[in-house]
Amino acid sequence: MGQKIVIDPVTRLEGHAKITLQTDDKGAVQSAQFQVTQLRGFEKFCEGRPFYEMPNLMARICGICPVSHLIASAKACDAILAVRIPPTAAKLRRVLNLAQLIQSHALSFFYLSSPDLLLGMDADPAKRNILGVAAANPEMGRGGVRLRQFGQHIIELLAGKRIHPGWAVPGGVSEPLAGEKRDEILAMIPEALATTRKTLDWFKSNLENYRDEIRTFANFPSLFMALVSDDQAAYYDGRLRFVDAKGKIIADKLDPARYAEYIEEAAEPFTFMKFPYYKPMGYPGGIYRVGPLARLNVARQCGTPLAEQEWTEFRSLDRGAVLSSFHYHYARLIEILHAIERVQLLLDDPGILNHQVRATASINSSEGVGVAEAPRGTLIHHYRVDEQGLITWANLIIATGHNNLAMNRGILQVAKHYVKANKLTEGMLNRVEAVIRTFDPCLSCSTHALGQMPLQVRLVAPDGLLLDEARRN
Amino acid sequence: MPPRLLVLACGTLLRGDDGVGWRIAEALVQTPFAAEIEVLTSQQLTPELAESVSRAEAVVFVDASGEEPPGSISLKPVAPAPSVPGSLTHHLDPATLLATAQILYGRTPRRAHVLTVGAGSFDLGEELSEPVCRAIPDAVRMIETLLATSTRH
Q: To the nearest 10°, the Cα dihedral for A318, A319, A320, A321?
């Protein structure tokens, strides 16, 4: 008799979701669905608002990555003004975006995923959290907390506050950087670099312990997409590149503003999150991944010395692109290293203190697209305005959404390997969740929802009979 | 020099009386004893605050409460919690934050309290209700008394 297994909600990620696994008569998993169950719909309720309000409004989508939305939105508004923002403003936005990446990646790695990595997938769920990490390895716990503080403090110094800052505005940024703030950030860099390098060394020395997870965690051929500039991953500005599973470039130098020519979004009745795909290959064959793993796969060099060494070692994991989504964790750490180095380079430029940081103009275009790399991947904001500058239409494609096809396929792969329907175990279910956590999905962003996440797993026969149930709060 | 008293005020200024913690924090920095305390504001308690908590001689968490009459003030001691829920992500309650400080940094303040002000409304808006506004001076005085009695661990 076939069964249905529901994990509802999924824990240690941002937002509400549940996972439904359907088994066949022999108890083998046949299908998997990652269901995002809430909707807030920012695209609709921003209609009628003045475009210059958009950066602040869009930053409210999420408390984890408000800076990413702020920046993509400000870029879309730059396009509506049809201005080229002052070079110093662009550099300051880059620093802000990198700080966001550091704090978000630190949250993902240390707070959400290191409990699994340090304590084990089968550890007591009551201890699989940042406190469990702190108890088992206080140095790592302190390092994770400090690294997140580092990113948040840069955001606070630049933009005035850690969460929902409003400093990036149409045409640039609202205030230049003061010299003492620059010096304060630079003084924090050695500790942040040391923490990241130490964590990378720890992670690499433990990779052997996760051979099974590396083999089964969303490890399949797919395309990868990211912004690229000078063959390096470009976090603030660049052209889009797609590579295939062999690492071969299949599309390059694509204008991000023309994303609709090569990205299409499919909808499925079981979830509020859409399914973007690479248009020339159709749905669902055009499956692609974004985010840290994709950025390291599309790049041909890293651009900063310490991260370059790590990137070279990372790329030697596979002959072509690195395919296992377990390595999102690895890529995240390398990106933190790169971001810290890049922040230092940007702040060492004397021009960073220049006071010309904002271009002014009136509405010169009825449409604007802003694209940047958020921590979780490529973020697209697209607005249309009327003659008064009021928003008439908006479309957001969020990083987590790009990964939707891959997350669903990854769950199926893990579930087929670990889940046996006649016996539910905590470790088995945690692995199903853990494959999702490798992508670090932000469902608050991708559907604009936020929630709390106890876990419920139900085994239901095709006739509706409840066969088994597991619950944790 | 660690502060004799750390005040950690939580809430959001956009949800009516939920902003009372921030308003009390604003009032505290205007007092004659402001130099003797450290005041931090946050929308929620996060592990990043553990380091500041660990350095303080005493701490008071200030927040709105939906379970008490509007404007009423409650002051209760709080101790580090021995355990936390498995789904912990990036926000904590006071007891868990104290435990985090103990685990990560090996110490917690000798005295820890939670001061709450009963809220009348959490509706959208930046204004506090009248009873909650009236409670702010009393809350400040209670925190001043805590400062006077705080001693280093």
A: 10
Residue A175 neighbours by CB under 8 Å, 6+ apart: A167, A357
pTM: 0.87
Query: Does A444 touch chain B if contact means CB atoms closer than 8 Å?
Result: no
Residues facing B111 on adjacent strands: B58
Nearest to B104 by CA among A453, A471, A145, A177: A145
Question: Residue-wise pLDDT tens for chain A (473 aa)?
Answer: 566 666 665 655 555 667 777 777 777 788 888 877 656 678 888 999 999 999 999 888 877 788 999 999 999 999 999 999 999 999 999 999 999 999 999 988 998 888 888 888 888 777 777 778 888 888 998 999 999 999 999 999 999 876 677 899 999 999 999 999 999 999 999 999 999 999 999 999 999 999 999 999 999 999 999 999 999 999 999 999 999 999 999 999 999 999 999 999 998 887 778 899 999 999 999 999 999 999 999 999 999 999 999 999 999 998 899 999 999 999 999 999 999 999 999 999 999 999 999 999 999 999 999 999 999 999 999 999 999 999 999 998 888 889 999 999 998 898 888 877 666 677 777 788 788 889 988 765 544 332 333 344 455 555 555 555 555 44
Domain for residue A391, yes or no?
Answer: no
CB atoms within 10 A of CB A4: 17
Structural domain contains residue A32: yes
Contact A111 B105 (CB under 8 A): no
Residues B20/B73, Cβ–Cβ less than 8 Å: no
β-partners of residue A226 are A241
The CATH number of whichever domain residue B91 belongs to comes to 3.40.50.1450
Q: Cβ contact (<8 Å) for B104 and A111?
A: no
Are A142 and B90 a contacting pair at CB < 8 A? Answer: no
Is A63 near chain B, with CB under 8 Å?
yes
Distances (CA, A) of A283 to A37, A218, A265: 22, 18, 9
- Number of structural domains found in chain A: 1
The residues with which B60 forms a beta bridge, in sequence order, are B7, B113
A454 chain-B contacts, CB cut-off 8 A: 87
Please give the tally of structural domains in chain B: 1
Tell me, what's the ipTM? 0.75
In a domain, A452, yes or no: yes
Evaluate whether residue A223 is within a structural domain.
Answer: no
List helix spans (H) across A242-327. Answer: 292-298, 305-315
A429: containing domain: 4-39+417-472
**Cα dihedral value A22, A27, A29, A32, nearest 10:** 20
Beta bridge partners of A470: A457
Residue B94, Cβ density class (10 Å: 0-12 exposed, 13-18 middle, ≥19 buried): buried
Task: Read off the amino acid at residue B79.
Answer: A
Two tokens at A304? 């900063």
Phi, psi (degrees; rounded to nearest 5) at A395: -135, 130
Place of tokens 């859409």: A274
- Nearest-Cα residue of chain A relative to residue B41: A161
In which residue are the tokens 């999420």 written? A62
Instruction: Tell me the residue range of the domain where B89 lies.
Output: 5-149
What's the rounded Cα separation, in Å, for the pair A444 and B55?
34
- Token digits of residue A365: 């275009």
* Candidate from B43, B47, B85 with C-beta closest to A163: B43
Angle between helices B94-105 and A138-159 (to 10 degrees): 120
